[in-house]
Amino acid sequence: MSRSGRERLLAFGFAADGVFKLAVAVALTVLIAPASTLLHADPPLALLTALVIAGSGIVEIGFAMRAARLRGHSRFLATYDAGLVIASLAAWWLAGEDRGGLVGAVWLGYQLAASTVLAALLLRKLRSAARDLG
Question: Residue 2 pLDDT > 70, yes or no?
Fold first, then answer.
């Protein structure tokens, strides 16, 4: 089945978002020591978060390649990104208030939870679509 121009653009957006998540995961892994220090977080938590972000990115890329219809699903990415902005602002505010110990918990905690939920939602949509076809 051929995709419309809008569907191709959405597929590109999903794949690009997934690639960006992979880049963030690689950067967090490579820079684990300074990132953990900056975020006042334990390195194992940062590493676990990087792995979950990478998994979410891989799921997004797979979703972009396999999902027949992407319309309506971009709201998942928009919600994730809006939450990330809020979590980042909250972490920035906490850092300014001398509550650095909470910075990593807020930012990494959001990434850990939201990436897991996003990946689960997209996988559920793919499985549902596969059942409908087969």
Answer: no
